[in-house]
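Researcher: Quick sanity check before group meeting.
Model: Go ahead. Protein one:
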Amino acid sequence: MQRSSSWRVTSKSCDRCHGETEIKIIDSVGGEAEPLKITLKNLPLLSCGQGHRQFIRPQFGAEILEHLTQQDEPELPAGEEKGLFKKKYLCESCGEELEPKPDHRHTFSIEVPLEDVSPVGVELSMPVYKCSACAREQMHSLKEVRKLTPVALAGAFESAEIPPPPAAM
């Protein structure tokens, strides 16, 4: 489930007990904001001898979120949302309306490169909808995914028992 890194971090003490920390790698942890499911793979964190966990740097969670929403998610196949009250979703390729029911769930695998650590693997699992005109499969909309990502990501961090950084509390 978790591995210890071979390098110790002595310049960063535990935010709660001020003990010495070391980098640990969590193999896999997930969070959810229906219908989006996020799984983080090889997530680095700091852990002290008392088992407290924290981000490797205070802005680490925000770095992952920003990379996902600004760089990775816009590259995923997603329709365009139209309508203020009655939503409809149009195919990104041909502009025709997407099927109202999802065809199946699809998992999109992403690697998030981060400074000073190995990339974190991210799996985004969402229902995909098929365009009846061109047969392209895609999520409803990028807007929908971007709205759900922070909640699902926070759930993954909570599952890993990483509290928000002190500045965010």
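Researcher: Fine. The other one?
Model: Protein two, sequence then structure:
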Amino acid sequence: MFFGFKYQNTSFRIMSQITETIHQKKLWVLVSSVDENTKADDLEKITPSVVGLVDEWQSTGKFLWSGPFNDNKTGMAIFEATEDEASRFYDKYDKICSEVLSYHLYQWDSIPLLSMLENTA
């Protein structure tokens, strides 16, 4: 019975950690725009690395939606992550895009329009 208790205690702890991680996850919005001095070659150079970053993120089962705006200079990515995961994703994105794009990372709740849309869905 001692081993059963130990197993149940370990299972409870693991489930507790999983539940805590789920509660820590938030929606994040990464808005990027092409700098005025950016050339088509610059975009072509970073595209494979950005695609690789997105593929790496999604291959671990994490959600990421992205797409361009109508101006073809601005895009947005929405993803779910803990604060640490979002920070690591942003750091990788920064290393890839810092010379080519301007970008900002926001927590979903900090953008009132998106929060209103979430509440009406």
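Researcher: One line on it for the slide.
Model: The helical segments are 2-24, 40-59, 83-97, 112-120.
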